[in-house]
Amino acid sequence: MFANLVRLALVAEFCIWAALGAWLGAGPVAIVAGTLACAAGVRLFVVCATFLHSWLARSPRAPGERLGAAGTIALVAGEWRAMLLNNFLWLPFERTALRDDLPPAPDPRLPVILVHGYFSNRGTLCGLARALDRAGVAPVFVPTMPAVLAPIGTFAAHLDRVLQEVCGATGQPRAILVCHSMGGLVTRAYLREHGAARVAGIVTLGSPHHGTALAAMGAGENGRQMRQASPFLVALEKAEREAGAGCPALSVYTVHDNLVAPQDSSRLEWARNVAIAGVGHLAMLLDERVHRAVLEEIARLRAAAGQGPG
Which runs of consecutive H residues, i.e. helices, occur in 171-217? Predict the structure, then answer.
C-alpha cells in the first residue's frame, strides 16, 4: 500500500515538473532532462537543509569527528545518493529492491528480524539485508509495517504478531531485532508491553531514543511521539528504569546524523553504544562499518545462545 502511494506521488511530481517545462516552451528532451534534474535538485536541497538543521542542534563532537570541506562534501553526497535510491527505488519498488522473505520454517538458528523506521517500508533496509545475505546470515525476515503515521504502539503491536509468527514457525523461542531509526522506538515500545521473552537482543541504528529536533516538523502521531521530551518518550524511559534492561542492546549511531539531532539522542543508557562518523541517516544503512557491527552482534548473540554465526 505505502509503495503504491509513493509511486503515485512520484508520478504526480514528474507531471508537475514536465508541465512546467512545457509551459516554459521546452522541447521533449529538455523536458525529460529538466524533470530529472529538478527531482534530484529538490532532494539535494532537502538533504542540505536537514544537515544544516542537525548542525544547529548538534551534540558536542570530538576533534577527530569534525569534517573538513572534502569530508563534508562526501557526507552530503553520500546522503543525497541514499535519498535518491530510497525515493526512486527502495520505497516505490520494494519488491525489486529486496528479495521476498522465505516462509518461516523450522531452523536451528535464532531468526533475525529487521524493523524499518518512520515513513518507510522494507525496501529501505535492502542494503542491510543484502549485507546479511552475503555474509550467510539466515533466516532473516524484513516485514513491512502496515501503518504509516499511526502511533508507535500500533507498529509495536504488528511487531508482536511478526515475532509470534517467526518464532512459532522457526521453533526458536527468541529472535534478534535489528532496527533502523524509529524502528528502535517500536522495539522498545514492544519490550515495554510484552517483555523480552521472545527477544534475544536488539540492535538499533540511528534511533532517536531521546527524540529529535526535526520531529517538530514530522507528520502523524508517531512524528509527535519522537519529539524531545514527548509524553511517549518520558513514559518509555520511566518504564525502562523501573523494569530494567530486559535483553542485551547495541546502539550504533552516526555523529553526523542529519535527521536525529542532537546526535547523542541515539545513545541508550542500558545499551552498548557505538558511534561512527562521516555518514548520514539513510547512508548509514549502506555503510560497511554498520554492517560489520550488526554482523558481529548477531554472531555474539547466537554464540551466547550456543549457536553458530551463520
Answer: 182-194
pLDDT of residue 47: 98
3-state secondary structure 23-50: HCCCCHHHHHHHHHHHHHHHHHHHHHHH
Angstrom distance (rounded) from CA 118 to CA 48: 20
Instruction: Fill in the amino acid letter for 251.
Output: S
pLDDT in tens, 5-28: 999 999 999 999 999 999 999 899
Which amino acid would we find at residue 298?
A: I
Residue type, 86: N
Strands 112-115 and 175-180: parallel
Angle between helices 126-134 and 288-304 (to 10 degrees): 60
Residue 74 sits at φ, ψ, to 5 deg, of -65, -40
Domain ranges of the chain: 1-310
Q: Give the Cα-Cα-Cα angle 189, 51, 297 (nearest 5 degrees).
A: 45
- The enclosing H or E element of 22 equals helix 2-23
Evaluate whether the domain defined by 1-310 bears CATH number 3.40.50.1820.
yes
Cα dihedral 124, 255, 140, 84 in deg (nearest 10): 20
